[in-house]
Amino acid sequence: MTNPDKQYMSITFVLSLIAAGLMAFSDFAGWTENTYYGQNDYYVFIGSENAPSYATPILIILVICHLASAYASYKGISGNPTKSLGIWSNILAIAITVLGALLFTVLAEAALERWLETSFYASLIASAVGIFLFSKGNTN
Fold first, then answer.
1. CA gap 41, 44 in Å, rounded
2. Could you tell me the pLDDT band of residue 71, with boundaries at 50, 70 and 90?
3. Is 111 in contact with 19 (CB distance < 8 Å)?
4. DSSP labels for 47-75?
5. Which residues pair with 30 in a beta bridge?
6. pLDDT digits (tens, 9 = 90+) for 101-111
7. CA distance 80 to 94
8. How many angstroms from the chain centroid is the CA of residue 118?
9. Which residues of 10-48 are buried (b: 16+ CB within 10 A; e: fewer)?
10. Which pLDDT band holds residue 139 (cuts at 50, 70, 90)?
């Protein structure tokens, strides 16, 4: 493995771990609703009581995808590349992230306003960069 390939895998490793951490401990989306007492803000994160029922499984799957990408990157750094695992875990992460955002925006119809949060953007950025760097490398 060449030095640029190790640099690519190191970048992907760090970004995947950051994305997994943000998916686990940060908000994915949020919305505002009118209630009897005024407006309340709610957030979607792992274990959120107010989030839709599909949110926690989607976020857990995304954490697993980012950890799989980090594992593939780690294997690439140590000299045993698993390029296909890295590419496919990142493709799956992008697909699930977009699907989760679409589900949220469509199904949160009663909300006055909806927005996507930190872990949504972290997942998209880490996955896109991961696909690019895994495909750019000269590894298997």
1. 10
2. very high
3. no
4. T-SSS-TTHHHHHHHHHHHHHHHHHHHHH
5. 43, 115
6. 998 888 777 77
7. 25
8. 10
9. ebbbebbbebbebbbebbbbbbeeeeeeeeeebbbbbeb
10. low
Rounded to whole angstroms, the Cα distance separating 97 from 127 reads 10
Q: Are 74 and 108 in contact (CB under 8 A)?
A: no
Token pair listed for 10: 């190191």
**For the whole prediction, is pTM greater than 0.85?**
yes
DSSP-derived letter for residue 109 is T
Domains and CATH numbers, the chain: 3-136 (1.20.140.150)
- What dihedral do alpha carbons 101, 107, 110, 113 form, nearest 10°? 10
Tokens of 110: 């009663």
- Report residue 64 as tokens: 């697993």
> What strand order describes the sheet that includes 38-44?
38-44, 29-35, 113-116
Cβ contacts of 66 within 8 Å, gap of 6 or more: 16, 17, 19, 20, 23, 89, 93, 123, 126, 127
